[in-house]
Write the structure tokens for this entry.
Amino acid sequence: MTAYLVYTPEILIMISALLALLFDVLDSKKLAGGIAIILNLVALVIILGWSGITGSILSLPQSGGHGLFYFSLFGYMFQIIFIIVTVSVELTTLDFSEYNGIFYALIEFALTGMMIVAISGDMVILILGLELAGISTYILTGYIRKSELSVEAAMKYYIIGSISSSLTIFGLSILYGVTGTTSLWLLNLHAGYSYIPKNNPLLYLGFSFIIAGLGFKIAMAPFHMWAPDVYQGAPSPVSAFLAAGSKTMGFMAMFIIFLSAIFYFAPNLSLLFGFFAILTMTTGNILAIKQRNIKRMLAYSSIANAGYILIAFSVDTPLAVAGGMFQIFSHAIMKVGAFIVVAVVSVFGVGESITDYKGLAKEHSLLALSFAIMLLSLAGVPPLMGFMSKFVLFSGAVQAGGWYILLAIAGVLNSALSLYYYARIVKYMYIDNPEPGKHKNKKISMPIYSYISIFVLVVIIVAVGIYPSPIIGYFIHIASQYMVWR
Amino acid sequence: MSFPVLSLMLIIAFAGALFSFMSKKGRDIALIFSSIDFILSLYLMFSFTYNTFSYQFMEKYGWISTPYITANYVVGADGLSIPLILLTTLLVLAVVIYSWDEKKNPSAFFGLIMLEELGVLGVFISLDFLLFFIFWEVSLIPMFFLIAYWGGPRKNYASYKFLIYTHVAGIIMLVSVIAMYFYSGATSLDFAAIASKSAYIAPFTQAVIFLGLLFGFGTKMPIVPMHTWLPDAHVEAPTAGSALLAGLLLKMGGYGLIRLAAYMLPAGRSAMTPLMMGIGILGVVWGAVAALSQTDMKKMVAYSSISHMGLVLIAIATWTQIGLMGAVFLMFAHGLVSAVLFMGVGSVHHSYGTRDIPKLGGIADRTPMLSVMLVIGSLASLGLPALISFPAEFSILYALFSVEGYIVAIPLATLTIVAGFYIWMLQRVVFGKYKSRYVNKKPHDISLYEAIGIAMLISLIVLYGVLPFILNNIILSSFIGGMV
């Protein structure tokens, strides 16, 4: 029995999903959301304990394999990100009447899938988690059934998502066919053995399918086209979940597959990932400048961030991988915060066009301040978290030397480019006057839960920015451990 | 560890910004807090120990310590930074007093000025690169807002141009310093730690890194191919913004170039000396000639800044004791003089409704006090002896002559152009026949607050012009002696 205690967080989250379904029948939305949040936080505390950040309440081996699963600090770290993102989104939706119990059930199922991917030690489990998270998010995207945009986004996301899943599965099946095992850590362990062929061209075919499949998930150029449409059409809290949660899951799957399992077969992928990194960040930033819709702009900025993170795959040194993980973490926090602000200001009658944000600071100074902090952090302005993560990531590229420095230079130039469109929103909010007829101050109840989640996220952004030492150290620790494993 | 005066200055600037934003009486708060900072910088000046080749008023606390990246909170001052710290606090105080009657959203205006002080002070006192870079970027955002909100008709374009140019410059500098950090194998991002190892980097790598730093700091200074943001930013910025921009932000570039680039990378510096020399001389000539052809007084002063910064670059390129002393001195002098000129031009614009030289004439008739200040500012800028620029320019030209010989003729000849456009401007604007057709029917002379702000700076211009050794001794006795 005690052996199953390692699955406590996943089981807790699964239970919360089922409870949410139950409370949906009883039509008690607050209870469904509240219990989901509490169970998520319990799971978070347990995981924080296991990953050695706080004292642990369940003493269990910190890492090790159980065949289908593999427990490591790496997986726990991503689970922490997923839970923070989910809890923020759930807190926000408590304020909105259109989300009922089924919403929390779906989002908890998606979270379960992500948690499973984080601890997967086998291709089958990995695919299981990806699919569970994927299918739940397809439904979430179309959650507002009366909105045409939402339904369109859901269809688009469903079609693209299922194609990408099938590509991934096909790639993994080729990998299985060549190597004869589905176990990711056996692949790594046995990489040196002669029964695994190194130069089989089929392997490269498999890699291409996996890169394309997961590339869709992380919105890597040229597989990024779906992201703006879907993020724009989905309800804002769901966009937050997609941009911060789903994308992080894609990156985690790539980390597991490329940087650990098949690392030994694929020494030549460095150049490829470098190419994709520069292509993705440049595409994202250039297209973001043209956007007039705030959610599309955030979607393109998310694509640009995927480009920065891909640098870690190309450079592949402990510092760069640590920087990549840090960037994933900070991007998730900042992006979920930004989308939550977008969701909250819509309550006050502010539309989705970026010009609707003109003069926001005059009426909602706290919201405008939080949004400004998040946007400037996304742009990499010190001393905020987004600067520190980019600093570590680009330092990793510079440290590696050689042509990797080009990646760092491309990264910083892109980040300078991005400052333009982030600063534009900040300028709109603080300097320009509101357009006539906008900002009808409707009499509504204060979205208090959203304010709590925004406040917590802003505190994380500022605190990590000012005193990043522990978190950088933690990511470097994970990255080093991770590199040893392989 | 003694009294942490430098950190206190930062805290006061930050508190001033915070309270100004929150309170209705931003200007009172800004005045109080910037006065305290000014008094503290006077304390620094007078308790400074001469003839020690080390940083003084040091404070050091651990900040980031991880396996690959180590950075500390280190602040300190030496002969290079003390004059610039004094310049910062003085200029901010003068600007606060000068802009006393600002009507448009004054709390935010004074809050941003205090935030600017925080950034610039931080740049001049931090001795750790990460800290330095944070303050570098902090100084950027308030100036963007000052231009974008209080600026002239083309403020949109000018503010973004300023932001993007200086931000790109900043991050190229960031990458260069990270490279310097990793390739030197320094134990932390401390200036001292990097400097102790950076000289052993391979010469070619040094040259490449130096080029990156020259680009980064040079854009801020600005040196000639990257200078185009400056006239736009100056023309559109409000008077206070122009004074701070020319007086302080440009100095950050020169300061960084001396402390981070030229000092830490000797081989890179000697490889790039001809380039710096060439760009410097080009800048001197370009700035002067461009200034000569301007009709907008503000643009003319902006181009003269480019010319003066070219001289600073030449001085750094000579890398002699007298040259560096001249560079620091000229930065200090230019900070005061350009602020006086921008304030004077701002008052002209305020009184007569235009800055266009052909439309002005004989303003000494109606606004005598303003005219006196404009004349003193112009004379100081063109390097009249007994005013502050003269000793600075003299030592730079002397250093150039001692290193490169007769090449000195080019900047020397250009100084006549500088004198030319200033005197010509004075002749057309201040003297001559009074033109009566102005936008304002009854031009008023400079207000008391504006006069106090300008007079504070002018008194120092005269003081240091007559007794330059007060400043020379600080610069020469501590910093230069340890460096060259």
